What does this fold into?
Amino acid sequence: MGMSVIISEATDQDVEQIFRLQYLCFQSEAALYGNYRIDPLVQSLESVRQEVAADRVFVARLGEEVVGSVRGRVTEDGAAAIGKLCVHPRLQGHGIGARLLRAAETALAEQHGATTFRLSAGHRSENGLRLYRRVGYVAVGTEQGQDGVPMVVLEKAATSYAATA
It folds into this structure.
């Protein structure tokens, strides 16, 4: 390939690429559940724009192309909610997802005082669940997504972010 993947904070100029990438990446998730109304597929461009403006959003770039993204924000209870991690299908399995998670965790802990990292994944999403377990997340419960998909809730202490991935 000849280029390195660079992780950086997303800007407003990245919104459309994040939107398109999210739609591409979550097709396989939708197929797992036979549900093409999952949140990442029905989220509006304007809603993505608002998240980039309000949350901590990181992207993975290969040259000018956004090939991965993740979002995070600190909730009222001091936990960092991390979500919508996605990596372009052609680049999955190369550590980009773990690097994006590490960037979000670092920013949320060091700059926003997060005490715990929390995320959720569909109960059939083995690749995502495997990644999250590998970087230290532990299942703490289940919940039903707004789209009806059964989700596994995972957490890890914010003090462990530096040693992960």
About this structure: The mean pLDDT is 92. The helical segments are 15-25, 27-33, 39-42, 45-54, 96-110, 126-134. Residues 106 and 161 are 7 Å apart (CA to CA).
